[in-house]
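Model the whole thing, not chain by chain.
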Amino acid sequence: MATDDPALSLLAEAPQGGDEPRRDGDRLDDENRLKSDFVRRVRDALDEGERDQVYDLVEPLHPADIADLFELLDADERPRLASAITDLMSADVIAELNDHVREQLVEDLPAEDIAEIAEQLETDDAVAMLEDLDEADQQAVLAELDPEDRAAIESALAYPEESAGRLMSRDFIAVPEHMTVGQLIDYLREDMRLATEFWEVFIVDQRHHPVGSCALSWILRAPRPVALADVMKRDQTLIPVTMDQEEVALRFQKYALISAAVVDEAGRLVGQITVDDVVHIIQEEAGEDALLLSGAGDGDINEPIHLTIRTRLTWLVVNLGTAIIASSVVGLFQGAIARFALLAVLMPIVSGMGGNAGTQTLAVVVRALATNQLTESNTLRMIWREFRIALANGLSLGLLIGLAVATIFGNPLLGAVIGSAMVINNLMAGCAGIAVPVVLDRLKIDPAVSSAVFVTMATDVMGFFSFLGLAVLAGLA
Amino acid sequence: MATDDPALSLLAEAPQGGDEPRRDGDRLDDENRLKSDFVRRVRDALDEGERDQVYDLVEPLHPADIADLFELLDADERPRLASAITDLMSADVIAELNDHVREQLVEDLPAEDIAEIAEQLETDDAVAMLEDLDEADQQAVLAELDPEDRAAIESALAYPEESAGRLMSRDFIAVPEHMTVGQLIDYLREDMRLATEFWEVFIVDQRHHPVGSCALSWILRAPRPVALADVMKRDQTLIPVTMDQEEVALRFQKYALISAAVVDEAGRLVGQITVDDVVHIIQEEAGEDALLLSGAGDGDINEPIHLTIRTRLTWLVVNLGTAIIASSVVGLFQGAIARFALLAVLMPIVSGMGGNAGTQTLAVVVRALATNQLTESNTLRMIWREFRIALANGLSLGLLIGLAVATIFGNPLLGAVIGSAMVINNLMAGCAGIAVPVVLDRLKIDPAVSSAVFVTMATDVMGFFSFLGLAVLAGLA
């Protein structure tokens, strides 16, 4: 931003798309995904080395769609695309790229190219690009940066991963309390080095502690002579610089924030976080439960395959252990099974249904814990609620399977046994489904990661034990 | 907003919290949840009928925390709390309340009270409050509203549920292209009926079609004489009024939007959606996968219990059907099991591990489909990826269990049989885990809702069939 005339400088930054808005009908489908035949055309052009054609195809895309295009291509096509569209590789494209895809691309680019991209990026995006590089490559890139950017990025990298310090931008507007609306507008118009992306202005005292914030719409609607102290909101949510990004995302969501001030240990304003940086995190954190519960790690389809195999295999091996424990319960009843093999036919129904019911409770409880809806204050009520659900569903399913078995096999006693086992195992499922995640949460262990293995073991063991045990007690075998 | 002096009017709206920011240490824990002993103090005061004490306790809370408090209390305590703190029941509290809790509260309040609250709310929040009421109650409330509010709410209710039309606010700023920055600021300062919550100004042509948008920071930084046409961004994401809210949320996320213009079928600007209205949806939609996959419906812990039981039981009954199908496969091998009961002991390991592996793949694929990361363009690559993962994990697990069984039972043939069955079932899990959700997605059926039942059936059937079948082929029984 070297222009002296602010209007010109603003003009230069505003994308000028002509009079007609972009028409994306031939590139995007009705769910706003890139059409497969558009991707095929890009692929064909890449294969034929037609770089100009590639450029013409990609040029009209929004940066977020260019990022999507990279993700849809095969790993070996990505660097070829990047080299065909170098000047379209804007900061926005880099910022929107999937972490793994970005990491791979960054590894394939020379340090000075990365530095050139990093300089256009906001600090938070530059940090996201550099944090994955190994120490030596990071130093090589930092050396290419101008001192001011380097200092900003180095200080961000000093904060823990996934903390507010990594996420925040250092470009924000902070002004003193006694300033008037008019003075603020003049200041914003005159100083061209100021941030261009901001939604609130922060008001600070002499020690640079935030004392209030003011949405831009309030400033635009107030007369020039009014002091900022009289329009600002004093109650604001301050984000400590070391706060975990998941916690930051929960605050933004709970208090419907657009931007928030980040403060250091001494309470000084050091950065701002805006909601667009947080939306991805909200989405990722909310979506990861299903993946963690299943033991699929972060479940990113762009992750290198050996990491995926390792993550999933670890979980499967743990589950193999619990499956062996459950099967050893069946082993106790080998004699009974040899005498009456029908027991082996029916036993998976009891254990499997317990597993299903346990997974339901588990999914609900893990979600409620993650969104802070389940706390000490309502845990007892929730346990009672899940108990009643388990009882109602256990009785219904037990009656259903009991009648079916009694009728099909003409054996009312067998029906009574499997029906009772079903009720018992559903209660086990409900209790384990709530107790396991709640206890893990109290122990500060992420319940989404480790609950399922305990709950499945509980329902498998209880399923086999209650059904086979009752069958033996009833004299069926 | 009847004041003539805009500064005074703004002052009246800005919350004045005194010079010190709120200190929440004794009410909120370190994860920003209400402390259980604070909730207990409110409960005790409610039980003793100490309404003033309840008021004093609740008064310093942020509206979002008051909403949380309602959710943490038992259903019968909520109306008593509401009546003790009537004048704290602001629009923000109502907007933040869980849908089920709000519905219950709204049912307990007389129509004129609801109308009084509805009048303070933005259209979208008022609609959220009224849409759950039955027709007669809705009419009673609408009759109490002033004509302008009633018209806005009625027209919003005419749009489909969960559409952009329900979500949007009708309070937005739309100005003509030829206006200058200075004229816009004067207009905003003078007209007191205008919206106070906005982050962008929309620029429209004579037919009221949006032609561009302008972030407030751009306006504040531009000199007065500059025409809006010269600072506005022409490329903007327009939201059709009938678009589903999930799609709206994906657009906001993909393009990092703060607010967006909503247009009707004729392309006219009819409303705006701001990111704070969308953040809840992003979070809900992303989090619902785990719940839907488990068959727990929307998994809301505040839902009336009979609805929860019905949702979960429906899913369990469907699963009971597939469990019976799987167990009938075991039935084919009853003779073999009677001769060699150890087969019944080991078979749940094969089926169970297949189920675990299938769930992993399923969780990853459902997530990738939901976030538009898996499209036609990369489906083949993903199938190949999942196949290799399934093969690698199947071989590892097969080797592990094969060696264990061969050693423990001194039966190498049995080890070879269970090892091979494990490889086969892992491949089945990988194939079903990706094929089922992809096919359902193509058929426009939500893969999160219905995939798991098919995948589990596939891995159960193949687990039993491959293990018992191979055992018979090998002459083990």
